[in-house]
Amino acid sequence: MLYTVDGLVLRAQNYGENDKLVTILTSEGKQVLLAKGARSMKSKIKNITEPFVYANFELNQKGSAIAWIKGGSSIEIFYNLREDVEKLFLATYVCDIANELSGERVECSDMLRLTLNTLFAIMNNMRPLAQIKAVYEMRAVAISGYCPNLDYCEECEEENAELTYFDITNGALICSDCLNKRGRIVKKNLSLTYDDIRERNVLIPLTPASRSAIRFAIGVPVEKIFSFNLSEAEDLKTFSKACEEYILYHLGHGFDSLDLYYSIL
Ligand SMILES: [Zn+2]
User: Which helix (H) or strand (E) holds 186?
Assistant: First the structure.
């Protein structure tokens, strides 16, 4: 069967003598493809089997065997991501997250659009890289079914509390009054310290702007997710920490690409 599909290359692994196994993200899910001869200099599919390339792939597939790439043409190659090592490692981390949070034969159009927009934002320095990274982390995990609710305190439902904490474990907000109350109750029963309680629940103190940024990242249409500024360094730092801890907590592990990204900052 011959068919074509638009997909973003999330990863490319060497396979056999001269071939590659290429994982692409399409709007209908993640797919692994065989790229025969793609490592040869003369290969006509060489340029569309590199990471970060968004292309129209011409595929051939027999029955349920792995599809192989017959040809194709690039739509966007995000070339300059490879010219800056900080951008390269961040883009790799973004694609690793997309790979982890996407399934085969499941609707992935939101994840594809988000990932393409994010690579575009990184390539064009639309915002500080730390902000782009955090927005992507929060939106990707929200799309995948772990959307936090930061509209009001999870206990008293107050919307306008001044001092709030992001309850990473429950994907919720807790105000400082409720946290203090909870602390007194638990302390009476278990003789834990206030710090123990914070540690157990993974609570991150939020600034008002960082809380707004999280709500923005999960609430607005994908085309607008990068259209805000965090002018205070403290707000960006808090926003970054909250988004990274939230996604890593829910995925249950870190990423080599994330370690590499931090190793050069
Ligand atoms: Zn409360």
Answer: helix 176-190
Residues 12 and 130 in one domain: no
Are residue 191 and residue 238 in the same domain, yes or no?
Answer: yes
Q: Which two tokens stand for residue 255?
A: 């990423």
- Distance from the alpha carbon of residue 207 to the mean position of ligand 1, in angstroms: 16
Among residues 77, 109, 142, which one ends one of the domains? Answer: 77
Mean pLDDT, consecutive 10-residue stretches, the chain (265 aa), reads 97 96 98 96 95 98 94 96 95 98 95 98 97 98 96 96 93 93 66 54 91 97 96 96 96 95 94
Q: Does residue 115 share a domain with residue 41?
A: no
**170 Cα to the center of ligand 1, angstroms:** 14
- Centre of ligand 1 to C-alpha 166, Å, is 12
| Short-list 46, 129, 127, 59, CA closest to 92 | 129
Compute the distance between CA of residue 49 and CA of residue 9 in angstroms, rounded to an integer: 7
pTM: 0.93
Ligand 1: centre distance to CA 178 (Å): 4
Does residue 194 sit in the same domain as residue 249?
yes
Question: Could you tell me if 135 and 214 lie in one domain?
Answer: yes
Predicted local confidence at residue 195, as pLDDT: 58
The answer to whether 111 and 101 have CB atoms below 8 angstroms apart is yes
Residue 106's CB: how many other CB atoms inside 10 A?
A: 10
Residue 6: which domain range? 1-77
The per-residue pLDDT for 202 is 85
CA of 204 to the centre of ligand 1 (A): 15
* Confidence (pLDDT) at 182: 82
Confidence (pLDDT) at 183 = 73
CATH number at residue 29: 2.40.50.140
Give the count of domains, the chain: 2
